[in-house]
Specification:
The complex is a heterodimer of chains A (114) and B (110). With 114 residues, chain A is mainly beta. Chain A has strands at residues 4-7, 10-13, 19-25, 31-37, 43-49, 56-57, 65-67, 73-78, 87-94, 104-105, 109-113. Chain A is globular and about 35 Å long. Chain B starts with 9 loop residues before the first strand and ends with a strand. Classes of the chains: A mainly beta (114), B mainly beta (110). Chain A binds chain B through residues 4, 33, 35, 39-45, 48, 58-59, 90, 92, 97-100, 102-108, and chain B through 5-8, 31-32, 34, 36, 41-46, 49, 89, 93-103.
């Protein structure tokens, strides 16, 4: 069972470069989420999607964009990377609103912006 | 120098003893709570959940207690094992989105 798969697992970017993080889930879940995790701060929600073609802002959306063109994929884009975006990024999915059921997480993408 | 929030609360427990990890949540309207375990280099993994109409729920070796009066959640792990070493997060449902606490690092002493 693949579950939630994130690509890539590691990346180093220079300030100002752009990149896209890919999240794929094979559980037919409606809801998908992107979080960032910084030392001592837990996970903070960047953007989320309640279904194919829909996206919404989370707690810390600035500097990021997302797209959900297919139900199984949720893309996180950084248009112009900044050192403050150095973090570990986690994607998650859930069959319904995460307020009602557990969310399943990927293994994370460690991003360093220099 | 140190900054607030860079250091996780830590709990060190002797192998075989019981562990109790505490969490204070923020919103009295939250109606669903989850405990996640995160091992080094991995994503969070579901442990147990509880809804606000309950005050206790048990799983295999784990128990979650919910005290809505003081907005407090605890995770009890019985007979702690080396494999329980991890960071533990509580999360609350707020406006249909999970909000995570900062986590507690559990270390097992052999």
């Amino acid at each position: 069972n693949a579950g939630v798969t994130q690509t890539p697992k590691f990346r180093v970017l220079k300030t100002g470069q752009s990149m896209t993080l890919l999240c794929a889930q094979d559980m037919n879940h409606e809801y998908m989420y992107w979080y960032r995790q910084d030392p001592g701060m837990g996970l903070r929600l960047i953007h989320y999607s309640v279904g194919e073609g829909t996206t919404a802002k989370g707690e810390v959306p600035d500097g990021y964009n997302v797209s959900r063109l297919k139900k199984q994929n949720f893309l996180l884009g950084l248009e112009s990377a900044a050192p403050s975006q150095t973090s570990v990024y986690f994607c998650a999915s859930s069959p319904s609103a995460s307020g009602n059921t557990e969310a399943f997480f990927g293994q994370g993408t460690r991003l360093t912006v220099v | 120098g140190e900054s607030v929030g860079l250091h996780l609360p830590t709990l060190s427990v002797q192998e075989g003893d019981n562990s109790i990890i505490n969490c204070a949540y923020s919103n009295s309207a939250s109606d669903y709570f989850i405990w996640y375990k995160q091992e080094s280099g991995k994503g969070p993994q579901f442990i147990i959940d509880i809804r606000s109409n309950m005050d206790k729920r048990q799983g295999q070796r784990v128990t979650v207690l919910l005290n809505k009066t003081v907005k407090h959640l605890s995770l009890q792990i019985a007979a702690t094992q080396p494999g329980d070493s991890a960071v533990y997060f509580c999360a609350e449902n707020l406006n249909e989105k999970l909000t995570f606490g900062t986590g507690t690092r559990l270390t097992i002493i052999p």
